[in-house]
Amino acid sequence: MFMKKLSVFFVMLLLVLTALVGCNKGDSPASSGGGKAGKGKNVVNIGFSGPLSGAAALYGKRTLNGMEMAVNEINDAGGFEVEGEKYTLNLVSLDDKYLPNETGSNAKRLIQEYKTPIIFTPHSGGIQALQVFNEKEKFIIGAYSSEPAITESGNSLTVRIPPNYEGYIEPFSTYAMENFGKKIAALPPSSQYGKDWAENLLPHWEKQGGKVVYNASIDFSKETDFFTTVTNALKEKPDVLFIGGASEPTAKVAKQARELGFKGGFIIMDQAKLDQMKPIAGSYETLEGSIGVLPLIDSNEEAAPAFIDKYKKIYKEDASSEVGLNYIAMYAFVEAMKAAGTVDDVKAIREHMQDGLTNTAPEQKIYNIPSIDENGGFAAKVVVGAVEDGKVVPISVEE
User: Fold this and answer.
1) What is the DSSP letter of 318?
2) At the top level of CATH, which class does the domain 167-298+384-395 belong to?
3) How far is CA 104 from CA 134, 139, 244, 300, 373, in A?
4) CA 203, 204, 209 angle in degrees (round to 5)?
5) CA 45 – CA 213 distance, rounded (Å)
6) Domain boundaries in the chain?
């Protein structure tokens, strides 16, 4: 009887120990909180909420890749020092499926479980969802969206990473109108970002003497065949199609338009990237006459070639602008922490973002970002490229 009770005791003890080990493992690569972790090192958790599944999954993954590459470089170099203390970074990523309500839920989890002073998100709907409570909850939004409303909101803890998309409106319109004609059909994505882009582009197009002959959005989360929408647009005989969203589905729209006989030009929203569209479209010939963001692989920035080579070795693909910009942003945030003398006083970190940009090393400056404006936007110049004779060429943009 005694031996039976002893056996039961040991079984129960084993179950308790197993449960405790399981609790320590958690369901994320990050440890809870930003305190000491392993061998006395301090750890700063950095959050990410973006689309890692669905139609925009590759877009979300590429923004995350840029952050991850910077984090790994910083940690491999021994971390960074703030006020005599050594820190390393821990990147905690959660999938929000491109849904703003999921972004909000993810952010609350990141704050509560990981105490993240910074949360990156790569879509305007998610960013605006976070702006409802980030000042109260005291975290900085690393906002990867060119939507101007993000910084115009007056949110004191938002940093907009890419350039304001309004800088693309004039050069895109002028190029397309001069090379193809004045009739445009708009097929933007149904996201808030797509609607805002259209609401800025189309009035400018008309102001320049153009005509909008068709305007209908595409829901990439629900549609995979665009035949009906594209056919209806082409019935109006447009000279130019305005398309955009994540690169892969945007390329499918362009390809289908060509298959249906469209011979005109494309205005490509800045979220989609010409080099990422090429494999889906089949070739640059399919995208002939497109104007969009100049691919990073065609950049003339001094630091770009080495970065592009390193990225390709790690991720087995060409680096895109969202990769490069999120890479720079991570370094700038770390330099801001160092200048502010803190890893968790988010107001002080935000106030030292100019120092962050200034102190970022030349080899990390894949793009020239000299300053951050008073509203929290990185003051990067828009870089524009067009597909001509089957290759991408840079297009000059007046300041």
Assistant:
1) -
2) alpha beta
3) 10, 13, 25, 38, 26
4) 95
5) 49
6) 42-164+302-364, 167-298+384-395
Q: What is the CA radius of gyration of the chain?
A: 24
Query: pLDDT for 272-296, tens place per residue?
Result: 999 999 999 999 999 999 999 999 9
Closest CA to 122 of 141, 149, 101: 141
- pTM of the shown model: 0.82
In angstroms, rounded to a whole number, what is the distance separating the alpha carbons of residues 310 and 354? 27
Question: Which tens digit of pLDDT belongs to each residue from 116-133?
Answer: 999 999 999 999 999 999
- The three-state secondary structure class of 157 is coil
Nearest to 141 by CA among 341, 353, 296: 353
Separation in Å, CA 369 to CA 67, 146, 224, 341, 399? 17, 14, 37, 23, 15
CB 144 within 8 A of CB 122: yes
Locate 305 and state its tokens: 């070639």
314 within 8 A of 69, measured Cβ to Cβ: yes
Task: Give yes or no on whether 42-164+302-364 and 167-298+384-395 have one common fold.
Answer: yes
Mean pLDDT of 287-316: 95
Architecture in CATH for domain 42-164+302-364: 3-Layer(aba) Sandwich (3.40)
Closest CA to 182 of 159, 211, 153, 154: 211
DSSP β-bridge partners for residue 36: 42
Joined tokens for residue 270:
């800045």
CA distances from 32 to 195, 209, 337 (A): 38, 57, 21
